[in-house]
Amino acid sequence: MSKQTLQLHSTTLTIHSLDVDSEIPATLFKQSMFIIAKTNDELSIVCPSQLAIDSLDAEHDWRALEVLGPLGFSLTGIMANISGVLARANISIFAISTYDTDYVLVKQQRIKDAISALKKDGYQFLNEPKLT
């Protein structure tokens, strides 16, 4: 399988955990990127860190690596391959899938290591990431 092209997003993200019955803040819907996931047991929101959300818990300082798509539903192993590369480099991830593509969130302090490991494994990056 050929390796997908990835793109590093510049926005720093926070992953919030909220009570399952919490109201979703209206300001969330004005953000350029956000993810809402709700089950019977939890409500999670991923959004730019600049947006303050009153949550039960929060994980700050994540960066998103986007698998450039759109990706067809018949494609297999994309997230398994990327997460495998990062697992072998001892890098934790938070994975998100949308209709068209996948995102791999990596903690800011490990993003250089993640990019290095992925490049070593043959992944390409659109617009060489500028890491500060």
From TrEMBL:
Q: What region holds the CASTOR ACT domain?
A: 58-119
Give the domain of life. Bacteria
Read off the SUPFAM superfamilies from this record.
ACT-like
* Short name of one Pfam family: A9CJY8-like_N
Segments forming domain A9CJY8-like N-terminal: 17-49
Q: What is this protein called?
A: ACT domain-containing protein
Upper lineage is: Bacteria, Pseudomonadati, Pseudomonadota, Gammaproteobacteria, Alteromonadales
